[in-house]
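My main concern about presentation is that the manuscript never shows what a single data entry looks like. An entry of this sort, consisting of the sequence and the corresponding backbone structure tokens, reads as follows:
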Amino acid sequence: MVIDTQFEDSAEYNFEINLSENIVTRDKVYSILSKAIFRGDLKPGQRLVELKLAKLMKVSRTPVREAIIELVQKGLAVPSPPKGVKVAPLPTMKDLTNFYDIRGALRGLAARKAALNIATKEIKHLEENIVKMEALLLEKSIRRIAKLNIEFHQIIERCSKSKELILLLDNLQKKSRESFSVIISKRDRQKESIQEHKAIVAALNKKDGILVEKLMKKHAENAKKALEKEIIFHNKSNN
């Protein structure tokens, strides 16, 4: 993960796509491009050239154009005057700090509300999620663990029964482009995170709203510190 990176003015794409024209929609093209951005196949600052992407995917330019518009709307791409669009730069350290502070407060509140509403089946789902994470940790499947981590928090957020909180957290997730943190996620932090998840589930099972809110906020704070440390290390190693 590179913070404050300069634009890479390149339109050479290192991923292969072959889609049949008659099944392609704007949503499918958007899904492909957004995943390529999160994986790092499309890098911050890289130009998104409509014609080249259409040729790569073997589709017309219309779904590609519409998908690029959606990428801009969701903050994954930015206009590049006078004409064109580029993959958006990664968040700055300040952006990430603000994100984790806000997310920690919102997730803490959601967890406290969830403690009042969570049912046995949801507790079981959370426990199953943790078991899967531990298995993937042995396989060193960090990206798949990151996906399970998102699912873990989404279960708790749904149990808050607060549409407003769920919407706020969902929008924050999209705007933050948190998935980029997968690029520098470390196994040790994932191990710590899983243990924190266990403590959160235990508090939810006891329906201790005050404790689970405290644990959730601490969980976010620990994630922020770990990511800041990795960003500093990553930037130093690239200088």
In short: The chain has two domains: 21-87, 93-237. Residues 1-8 have pLDDT under 50 and may be disordered. The beta strands are 77-79, 85-87. The longest helix spans residues 209-237.
